[in-house]
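Human: I would love a firmer grasp of how sequence relates to backbone shape in proteins. Could you go through the record with me and say what the backbone is doing? Here is the record:
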Amino acid sequence: MTVHPDRGAADEDGAVSLTVDELAARAGTTVRTVRFYSSRGLLPPPVLGPRRVGRYGPEHLSRLALIEELQHQGLTLAAIERYLRQLPEDISPEDLAVHRALVASWMPESTEETTREQLERRVGRSLTRQDIGRLAALGVLERTGTDGVYRTDPGILHLGVSLLDLPIPLETVLASRAVVEKHSRAVARELNRLFKEEVWKPYREGDPRPEQVEQMRSLSAHIQPIIVQAMVTAFQRSMMDELRGSRGAAAPERGEGPGPA
């Protein structure tokens, strides 16, 4: 196992490996909270390293971020447990991050100010001036009027940092972000229209009692995680179909397709 001062340790296959204290610091929570979630089965057990010290990885960090966002949505612990049970057992940290980002999209922006030192502690690595500029361009953080102080949304911070080391030009990342935002906004607008016209409007026309109105408002909040799950599943299937189509179209060009009949 090799140790990277800024990123914790890395095991034999290069995956980031964290102690429970490092995991809590990255997630912006406490060791007590991590252990409580583990006792409830919300987090998978850690891998036991030398001297039987538990080591945690990206999947634990992503799950903690998702749990935090579901709490912000107002879900009870029991509801969060049900939500997590519906996820595939082998779900990747990247897919968990997508869930977190989609859940967060239903909430008002929750930015907070942080210093450079706090920011680096939260992401578990040093950030160069170029890194800061790239994160700002991605909209992950923004500079304030005070030198060394930034405003950021903790929910998308780790997602943005994960893009720093990818060998993809910034222009391509920004173009991809624009595509996702454009179509996500269109989906949200259409779903909102459907809910208002097909569910909310007929309900209001029925002259409901005040408590029924409150129940309907509560319903709109509780169906959001279900919609998020549906969007993630549909997006993943669409991406797989596109990738299969691309490979299939490219096969004959590589001489891998069937010969003439």
